[in-house]
Amino acid sequence: MPHRPGIPMEPVSDRIFLVPGAKGGRFPFSHSIMILDRVRVIIDTGCGQETLGRIQERYEPDMVLLTHAHPDHCSGTALFPPCRVWTPRESRRSTGRLGRMAERFIGPALREEWVDFMHKTIGFREFTPGNSYGAEDRFDLGSLTLVPVHAPGHADDHYCFYFPEAAVMATTDIDFTRFGPWYANEEGDIDAFLESIERVRSHPMEAAVSSHEGVVREGM
Q1: Which of 1, 4, 164, 166 has the greatest number of beta carbons closer than 10 A?
Q2: Concatenated DSSP letters for 14-33?
Q3: Kind plus residue range of the DSSP H or E element containing 59
């Protein structure tokens, strides 16, 4: 399916497109990825409500794949039907429920303040994923195969996605930024993160798509 004008997209390959996030993909936003194949897929929903609304109207994605439960990656998921939403199996019980997400990422002391911030400042609407996936799964999209690559260290449920036919890796929050991407919460683990980087690097890549830096083709 060709890309229709009116939605900002940067081609990564003939079927894979970067959807730039608001504010350059900086928190509380992130870039999304659109796959226009026999199966239409959007990866992560942090690019902004206006862009997501256009994508839903024009493409009606068959699948909404979340890379992990951090709110800058899943904040717009409530726009889509739960039966189309896929979340990592490691976080199925918490993804989309702000109270449970706060327990994971913040702890009890600031739970209420964090939930209030997500509602009022970010506009987060809670949702319930209808499906889950793991590292053993493979998704046949038509001309492309999507391979989940479990990459903990940033978060227990953090995944990257590899497209072997295009030699493209969605590196998610292995994101080439100076600010991150490891944080000192209970799920942050530097050793696990370094192992995840090596796991991702072991795949042949012509391009990487970072959730906060966009398309990277040189110096990977």
Answers
A1: 166
A2: SSEEEEPPGGGG-TT---EE
A3: helix 49-59
Residue 144: pLDDT above 60? Answer: yes
Q: What sign for the dihedral angle of Cα 161, 85, 27, 156?
A: negative
Closest CA relative to residue 151, chosen from 193, 184, 213, 190? 193
Say what the pLDDT of residue 5 is.
Answer: 55
Amino acid at 128: T
How confident is the model over 34-55, as pLDDT tens digits? 999 999 999 999 999 999 999 9
Per DSSP, the three-state class of 193 is helix
Q: How far is CA 209 from the centre of its chain?
A: 11
Backbone phi, then psi, for 216, in 5-degree steps? -120, 125
Residues pairing with 131 in the sheet = 86
In the numeric block, the tokens 């509602």 are attached to: 119
Residue 27 has pLDDT above 90, yes or no: no
Average pLDDT over residues 107-133: 90
Half-sphere exposure of 54 (CA within 13 A, CB side): 13
Strand order in the sheet with 16-19: 10-11, 16-19, 32-36, 40-43, 63-65, 85-88, 131-133
Tokens 């999304």, residue?
32
Looking only at the bridges linking them, the beta strands covering 40-43 and 32-36 are: antiparallel
**Per-residue confidence at 146, pLDDT binned at 50, 70, 90?**
very high
